[in-house]
Write a structure and sequence with these properties.
It is a single chain. The chain has 336 residues and is an alpha/beta fold. It folds into two domains: 2-154 and 321-334, Rossmann fold, CATH 3.40.50; 167-319, Rossmann fold. It contains 14 helices and eleven strands. It has helices at residues 14-24, 34-38, 44-53, 58-75, 89-99, 134-144, 167-173, 185-191, 225-234, 252-259, 272-275, 288-299, 302-319, 322-334; strands spanning 2-6, 28-32, 79-82, 104-109, 128-131, 148-150, 175-180, 199-202, 235-240, 264-267, 283-285. The protein has a six-stranded parallel beta sheet with strand order 2-1-3-4-5-6, with helices on both faces. Strands 8-7-9-10-11 form a five-stranded parallel beta sheet, with helices on both faces. α10 (252-259) links the parallel β9 and β10 (264-267). α4 (58-75) runs parallel beside α5 (89-99), α7 (167-173) packs across α9 (225-234) and α10 (252-259) packs across α13. Mean pLDDT is 93; it is low at 41-45.
Length: 336
């Protein structure tokens, strides 16, 4: 089967994990990344900079979309999996003109609904849409009549596994507490209760507007794939804070941390109880005070941490990999 994956192909991105896993499953995969597409045209750097500033301007999007349609026409996929939130209704309609109605087009979104911006996917003619939060799935099905489905995030066992740490790894990543991800005021204020702890923060550059005492804990290192597994494994506790607009669902960090065999304390959401056994495979918190209480408790209990982390890893690899998610999603899309 020929499958086109549209999205940014960087380490740990959804598009990258989809492409990687589909190839493992024996599919013929085409990767369409707007950054790669812009590399082929003159004045690409200048145009790419303009596009980054005004990503939702129709004329600028049309330039990108023509490149995508050209790639699709050459490859002629059976299924298109799109992860771009701003691939709009006109672009989808044109893709159908190029490919014909026999090709299936699906949208997969790995982020909180608050980040859907102009919500282009909700106005486009997709065969199926997949979201990680069942709250939105129910909303879009019942209010809009969309063929929306719940698809949790996942880990990739090729790099989210219990890596054996070297002395150099422990020296670089070892600490009491860690987390990785974008930093914004909700997360910064929540984590500020650990000022003075042995805490290491990883992720993209901190926003210049963010004022927080946690700047002293920021490593200025973006970790992904095996390096993220090392960072999570080397810490005694991985703190997993969810975006405040993730209502019922679980973020990708929950599966990544579990997959690499790290002990994590995660922000509770209802769906977490369907994914893991609470206090046996993952530890959760429901308040700022409870988070601090549990961090202080588990820091001095390495045996309990190890037992929970091992159980969580077995669960993640046994039920929550990208292969599991893709097998489910492709069955739905193929039946549309």
């Amino acid at each position: 089967m020929k499958i086109s994956v549209i999205g940014k192909q960087f380490s740990d991105s959804l598009a990258h994990n989809l492409s990687f896993t589909l190839k493992q499953m024996g599919m013929e995969v085409q990767e369409i990344d707007e950054d790669r597409a812009f590399e082929r045209i003159p004045f690409r750097r200048r145009l790419r900079s303009i596009f980054a500033i005004a990503e939702s301007h129709p004329r600028l999007l049309a330039v990108r979309d023509r490149l995508i349609h050209r790639e699709l026409a050459q490859f002629k996929p059976h299924i298109v999996l799109n992860t771009y939130r701003d691939w709009g209704p006109r672009a989808i309609a044109r893709a159908r003109d190029v490919l014909g109605r026999t090709a299936k087009i699906a949208f997969l979104y790995p982020d909180a609904f608050a980040n859907l911006a102009r919500m282009f996917p909700l106005g486009a003619d997709y065969d199926a849409l997949f979201f990680k939060d069942p709250f939105g799935v129910d909303m879009f099905r019942s209010r809009l009549g969309l063929n929306a489905h719940y698809l949790p995030e996942a880990c990739n066992p090729s790099w989210h596994f219990p890596v054996e740490l070297t002395p150099e790894d422990r020296a670089r990543y070892g600490c009491d507490l860690t987390t990785a991800g974008n930093m914004y005021y909700y997360r910064a204020r929540l984590l500020s209760i650990f000022e003075g702890y042995d805490l290491k923060l990883y992720g993209p550059p901190l926003p210049k507007w963010l004022e927080s005492p946690l700047r002293a804990n920021y490593t200025h290192v973006y970790v992904s794939e095996v390096e993220k597994s090392k960072a999570f494994r080397a810490a005694k506790i991985t703190i997993n804070t969810l975006h405040p607009t993730e209502i019922l669902g679980v973020n990708v960090r929950a599966f990544e941390a579990a997959g690499c065999g790290a002990f994590q304390i995660a922000d509770w959401r209802p769906e977490m109880e369907t994914m893991f056994r609470i206090d046996e495979e993952i530890v959760v918190y429901r308040s700022r005070d409870e988070l601090k209480e549990k961090v202080d408790y588990y820091l001095s209990r390495p045996e309990q941490r190890a037992k929970i982390a091992e159980a969580g890893c077995r669960r993640a690899h046994g039920e929550h990999t990208y292969r599991h998610r893709l097998e489910h999603a492709l069955k739905i899309v193929d039946g549309c």
